[in-house]
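User: I'm new to structure prediction. If I give you an amino acid sequence, what do you actually give back? Let's try with this one:
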Amino acid sequence: MELLGSTLTATYARPKVTATNFLPAISTMASSYKNRAPPYSPNYSMSLPWRPSTYYKVASISPGLAPLSNSAPAAVQTQMANYPSNRTALYARYTPDDWYKSNHIHYKDSESSRHSAERLRLDTARLIQFKDQQTRRSQSETSKNIGERVTDIAFWRSEINHETDQMIGETNALTDVKKRLERALAETEGPLQVAQECLYNREKRMAIDLVHDDVEKQLLKEVDCIKSCQERMRRHVDRATTQLSANRAAQHELERDINDKQSAFRIDEKCHQLRNTSDGIGYYRGVERLDATVSVPESWAKFSDDNILRSQSERIASAKLRDDIENLLNITSNELWNQFNIVNMAFTNRISEVADAKNKLQTHLAKTLQEIFQTEMTIEAIKKAIRNKEAPLKVAQTRLDERTRRPNVELCRDPAQLRLVNEVREIDETIQTLQQRLKDAEDALQMLLHTKATLEHDLGVKAHSLFIDQEKCMGMRKCFPSTPRLVGYT
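Assistant: Good question. You get back a string of structure tokens that encode the predicted 3D arrangement of the chain. For your 490 residues, that looks like this:
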């Protein structure tokens, strides 16, 4: 007979359940107690030491009494009443064959449990070895990936450092060129003031010399040229200021990227050097579930590449601007010098023309003075001639007057009378002619005197113009910035 779960009760009426899925028991000694409880509730405590309740909670195999159910199929539906008078009859229901079969089942269950436990141990050992290898391989791959990451960071850091050095050099070069341009712009103020002062002084010319001559035209061109150069220089100064701001912005992005990569390099280098025996390692529960990343390798590399490309683009623009400024300085210097020489040449020609005109005026003045002297002498001669005709006229008129007193027939129109009349008439005509000539001479003298005054005034105007052009204007234009100063060198 077989004891099923209790020393006081037993049953053979339950069919045996065939085990299809077997899980190894926690202990091989407990396999004989699996699901052997009677179908009724005993009236005593079920927490006996030889029947652990924990085992019944985790076991999943429920061996039954299949052989007994085959011999008595109708007994499945019959359950014996829990009467004390029936216990002897129930115990007598087991046979030796049932007892041996029950033991055999326990042996098989024990062997099966041991084989399952052995397989579990072997699988566990293989699992431990596999997981250990997997862990070491994963750690090795992680270290390799971190090392590659460190290499990538070092590469991009070196590239950004190189680009930063290039950008710093370009920014310094552009700053120097900008300072030269500002110095050149300041140097143009002097020539502009000189040209404007020359125009202002030449406005003080008098009379006919206040002419819009070639000198004035060239001076106006010089003022326009200087202002045009200044305007171009100011535009390039503004462009250089803007470009310097762009260069510094690109340099700032590079430096920030360098700082970030330096920090990342230190962190990844530290992570790459960590080992299982390193200090400072510890548990950080849930850290693998935190995703604080903001980029992927492609966007990470593109970010640095974009910064470098931006810096290179700004460097190219800055280098082109420096070339433009250099060309502008050379062009403006040549333009200023050319216009300065043209104005000086115009001044020289104008001074020569005015000096020649002054010399000619002086020659004409000398001739006019000579002519005035001659005219005055002529007037004196005419006056003397007129005075000389007074006595002959008096004589002739006296004769005629005396002869009018002849008596009677003696008043004869004789040749003497006729000659006297003609003589008086001739002398009168001569005096009138001389007086007319005296008047003409006096008019000529007045005209000569007016011409003399005009010539003297014109000589004064020419002398004043020469003083303005030769002394004031050319005196100021003796000093002009040299070519090195016009291109920004001191």
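You can read the tokens as a compact description of the fold. Here is one thing that stands out. Residues 160 and 308 are 7 Å apart (CA to CA).
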